[in-house]
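Weekly puzzle thread! Below is a chain. First person to post its structure in token form gets bragging rights.
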Amino acid sequence: MNKRSKYSEEVSFRPIVGIDLGTTNSAVAYIHKGNPKIIVNKKGNKITPSVLLIDLEEKIVVGEDALSALVAMPERTKASVKREMGSSELSEIAGKVYSPEEVSALILGEMKDLVDETFGEGEKEAVITVPAYFTDQQRQATKKAGELVGFVVERIVNEPTAAALAFGYENMDENRHLLVYDLGGGTFDVSIVEIMDGIIEVKASSGNSKLGGEDFDWLLVDWLSEIMINEHQVDPREDIRGLALLKEEAERIKKQLSTENQIDINLPVVVMKEDQPLGLKQTITRNTFISLIEPLLEQTMEKVSEVLKEANMQPGEMDDILLVGGSTRIPRVHELLSDYFGAGPRHDIHPDEAVAMGAAVQAGLKSGALTDSGLIVTDVAPFSMGIAVLSEMASGKVREGAYQAIITKNTTIPVTRTETFYTSVDNQTEVKVEVYQGEEKLVKDNHFINEFILEGLPEGPAGFESLEVTFRYNLNGILEVTAKSLSTEEQVTVTMEDAIDRSSEQAYEESLEQIKEASNKEDDQDMPDDFGQQSIFDFLEYEEESSLDELIDEAKQWEKRCRSELKNTSKVARDQLRAGIDRLQKAMESDDADEVEEAIDMVTDIFIELEL
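Winning reply:
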């Protein structure tokens, strides 16, 4: 019998939730008593860090504890995977290799647990948000990550559209033009949205899927590294722990400088050189930080100008500026927008929660929970989409590699568009349709999506046979392409393939099995649940009088932890760790409880001394 919450018994439809799968943080929300509500996580917080840890017990940990382990166990953690979605880049975590979709699925698994605790076990549907400027592959990869962890994902929503939904749902009686400025941890989007008589219409979108708070952090890391290079002739970025430590410090600096004009940096140990600890002591001002990130902020303002031009609007026509994403807390962002528009942005929506809340509204519209609201939402295609064609040059010669858009950027979706093309050589019996996404004139400068072949064309002179190419772009931002011969009625329809290798069912099943295996590790009842996530001092508080078998099990864990640290420490530290391993092994062979306990004490002293 499945466990069920009181709320789940009240609903008669399959639960649908809205998920903001962010670069830095994620959140999940649903419609509760007619209003969007975020589900708090196990720590009592509304947002969960999008960080994955596979701890020393091979257990999956997501969220705050995983974030805390980034410095201590960089080889066992993964953050900012959203920036890799849709790519073939793989991550090695705790000795296993994961695709971006698999890492995202494990993070979404934490969201799934929260949903199951709220609604009870059973099938759940999810609306998942993505940056407006995500490519088709990135959208498909996000959809697949949700499916891998057990969600039914039938709707993908652009993040600025979701933020506008959150605002529009609370302000349906107002007719306004909004500019949604969404600067998150890894991506930037800007959209112009019109709210009129309950209709929320996206007029234009632009952005950069590789620009966000992460880039500000890395600029600070470079700045801190240069100081250490000048002072100690050591580049801490070449040390995995040193790099992780500086990245963590950079995030702290960025956040504190949003409320303070100057802060002190004091890191006693960043790296080791010739067995000596090298630290960093420095003061940084807000002006210094702004000077580092100003070029990137200017890029966001260029996109603001671009989207206004595409919507054929002037700055003065904007009624409200909505800020979304944690990086919008930087005061310089407010200054730039206020100078540009002559008025400051609104502050009545939460920058970290707006996208999840809007996704919940979209989920409510889809489920029927908000049917009576009268709210209608439209969106736009963030890119032009088309095919490779031949083009005629001024000399009269024909050149390959030209790009013909079939659906143009900022077309209202869902949309279906058809164009007619012709054979290009005599007796041509097949045609290859190459699908691209972008705004450039040549396909080499655009983003390749996929290709397929239409066969069975009747032989004839070049230009004799006509073909129709139809693009269908749905509300999820996912593209379907059909090529049809007008004389034979032969046609091929292809939904653009997702980023996970689905060339065979076996490939998908292997990916699904990896997620299941990682998610279903049995807890070791003889160890605290968060062993490996906390500091060594927290673990020492757990110790109590134990039997020989319990001490040996504990010694095995310490031996395993010693081995995991060997490759990431200095020569002196490695020698100490090896000595600890030898002592543990000899003690366990002796079957003497006192010997084992003394060996454990020795190793804990080593970890304290090395600050591991």
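Puzzle host: Confirmed. Bonus trivia for everyone else. The two ends are 45 Å apart (CA to CA).
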